[in-house]
Design a protein that fits this description.
alpha+beta; two-stranded antiparallel sheet; globular
Length: 199
């Protein structure tokens, strides 16, 4: 310790900055097993931080039901449709997107949640969570290399299509109005009317 630092410590003028304690996915699971996170508490691990998810409102629930039904109908036998289930990103993130379209695996996903290389498309349905989805979750998906994310923007009644992932976010964004249609990159033969998904 320098003489100046020792003097500041003696005078009581030393300041210490607070730091965040980040958690790994393994520690996150231990918190659940230990009862620190309640079973009825909806949480996500994002870049090592535990986020408590807000309650699901009726418009959000309707959008989720519509998208889930639509995807099960259109992609049966072609992709796995996962509804509000976790995905495993690098060591410190396990978000729970509203809908995930993932590659089919003979064994399913019993042994492990889908990873970026398994995922065709992530769908986030956003009303009260719009800012968090845009500023936190979409950059996370892009940095992990997920090729495409759809943001169902309920306040503005549209679907935002994000493609071309990069470490700092998606480089290609297309806004599609209710009267338009969206087509997943992985399934160019499937055009879905936005009105079928938006509540």
């Amino acid at each position: 310790m320098s003489v100046e630092a020792a003097q500041r410590a003696k005078d009581g003028t030393v300041s210490t900055a607070a730091t965040r304690r980040r958690f790994s996915v393994a520690e996150y699971y231990c918190m659940g097993e230990a009862g620190i996170l309640r079973p009825d508490e909806r949480t996500e691990l994002i870049r090592g931080e535990v986020f408590v998810m807000p309650p699901v409102g009726p418009a959000h629930a309707e959008g989720n039901d519509r998208t889930n039904d639509c995807f099960h109908h259109r992609f049966r036998g072609r992709a796995a449709v996962r509804n509000q289930n976790p995905i495993r990103l690098p060591d410190d993130s396990e978000p729970q997107p509203d809908i995930v379209l993932a590659r089919l695996r003979p064994e399913g996903y019993r042994a492990a949640h889908p990873r970026p290389e398994d995922i065709y498309l992530v769908v986030e349905i956003s009303d009260t969570t719009l800012a968090t989805d845009r500023e936190v979750k979409l950059p996370l998906y892009a940095a992990a290399g997920i090729p495409e994310t759809w943001l169902m923007n309920l306040p503005e009644d549209r679907i935002e299509v994000y493609r071309d992932p990069a470490p700092d976010g998606y480089r290609n964004i297309t806004i599609v109005a209710r009267d338009g249609a969206v087509t997943p990159l992985a399934f160019p033969d499937v055009a879905i009317p936005c009105a079928e998904l938006l509540p």
